[in-house]
Amino acid sequence: MRRKSKLQASLLDVRVHVESNNPKRPAVAKYLQNLFDLEAERGRKVLPVDNLLVGKTRKEASRMFFEALVLKTRDYIHVEQENPFDTINIKPGVKLLKSCF
């Protein structure tokens, strides 16, 4: 298998960085913030990812999952999965709870 050149790797990094600045991200964060507020009223601190994806198309579900991963990398949410193929649970991070979107 051929290794990527430094130029190819840096171009990929630029593309990923540009694509990660999605203007819809604050909307997804706000959506999650509202869901966590509703779950807190019901006495729950964890939100299964499956609940986020109910009623969504495959395209919407994949975007939502990707945005959740990006929010995880930026410490807005915490993601837990006990074992492979188990339910993925999301907990709000301090940044998410304190942010105004």
From TrEMBL:
Q: Which Pfam families match?
A: Rad21_Rec8 (PF04824)
Q: Which keywords appear in this protein's UniProt record, sorted alphabetically?
A: Cell cycle, Cell division, Chromosome partition, Mitosis, Nucleus
Where is the chain membrane-spanning?
none
Subcellular localization(s) per the UniProt record:
Nucleus
Q: Which GO terms of type biological process are on file? A: chromosome segregation
* Cell division listed as a keyword: yes
Q: What is its main location?
A: nucleus
Q: Which GO terms describe its cellular component?
A: nucleus
Rad21/Rec8-like protein C-terminal eukaryotic domain location is: 50-95
Alphabetized SUPFAM superfamilies for the sequence:
Winged helix' DNA-binding domain
Question: Known InterPro entries for this protein?
Answer: Rad21/Rec8-like (IPR039781), Rad21/Rec8_C_eu (IPR006909), ScpA-like_C (IPR023093), WH_DNA-bd_sf (IPR036390)
- What is stated as this protein's family in its record? Belongs to the rad21 family.
Q: How does it assemble?
A: Component of the cohesin complex.
Q: By what name is this protein known?
A: Rad21/Rec8-like protein C-terminal eukaryotic domain-containing protein
Provenance organism? Ilex paraguariensis (yerba mate)
